[in-house]
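#structure-requests
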Amino acid sequence: MILLIIFGSITAMVIAPMYFRSQERQRMMEMMRISIEKGEPMPENVTEAISRTARARLPPSPQRDLRTGIIWLGVGVGLAAMGVALNYDDPDATWPMIGIACFPAFIGIAFIVMYFLNRGRD
């Protein structure tokens, strides 16, 4: 039951913002459609929200790769540290946790390598 609550809350934290953003976008589109049908100018808040969402999708850059790589590497180091901390209570938990920590750590290393490969292409 505890695992269900943990994974359910993680899933809810990921899905809920996506759902609410989608609902906001649908309301904006409906408001735009109504204003176009009536021949009225678009409200300022709609045009501002549209330009804000267009700016939110930035193109990939080496700095973004470096930032993402450092975050993933930090997650991997954190999981490895958790495995070492669990060693005091259960000695058999260390190596599986370090093995799990390798996945985000290697993803982070890959992003950092991409930073160095794409650094001169800005």
